[in-house]
Design goal:
4-stranded antiparallel β-sheet, globular, 7 helices, Jelly Rolls, 6-stranded antiparallel β-sheet, single chain
Amino acid sequence: MIDTVRYPLTADGAGRGEVVRRARAELAAGGCTVLPGFIRSDLLETLRAEGAALAPRAYYTVERVNAYNIPIDTELPPDHPGRIVLERGNAFVARDLIPGDALIQVLYSSPVFQRFVADCFGLAELHEFADPLAGLCVNVVAPGNSHPWHFDTNAFTVSMLTQEPEGGGIFQYCPDIRTPRAENLADVRAVLTGTGQRFVRGLRLRPGDLQLFQGRYSLHRVSPVTGDTQRHTAIFAYSERPGIIGTVERTRQLFGRVLADHHAAAGQSVRGDRLLD
């Protein structure tokens, strides 16, 4: 399903080293890299159709959130950016609703693809999320909605646009606006209040593009979608450690339900930094 002429995945593939080097350089410079046309052009309609068929299964809810994905009534200083309330109107299709033969499911589980992604991020190893809902999901943004400014819990994200909206739906991000040691609250607040445009970069993705992103330190959002067509994105969740499962609260927010696995893993989350969220 992959254009292996442009993107050789196997270790002996000609040109693979150059692709990996470019990805690493762009990630180091700005926390983001895009591999355009990663999926073969003759499969783009299949990719789109599969995502469109799944979209009605998404858990839809409009939620009041903040950029840190912590409760909006958390006690914080008056000028803290975590007190700025945003509206999240995007929806998610959980992994257990995605057929095993869907292109994104096959790709997500491929050891060859996983090794390639790990090499692009410069990781010794990479593991699928053990979470039966959040390991792989489809993010649906309907016209009039957006995925508001936020930080990711995971250090890195792998995603692929499967359906492009008629308008809007631009991926916007602020590279390394915080660090593992500093929240840089004033800069985050400036972005959230509309006075920090100097920090913001915009990226228009196309269906079949593979995006690698370091979202734990880079504030990011999908701008409001316009027109009549939804924006669909497959999100491939991996981690450097095996056994990762989402929290009960966050899982319920995103998918509207919680499984026994989430209750069993409660309280076992370990962060590699002390950042908020």
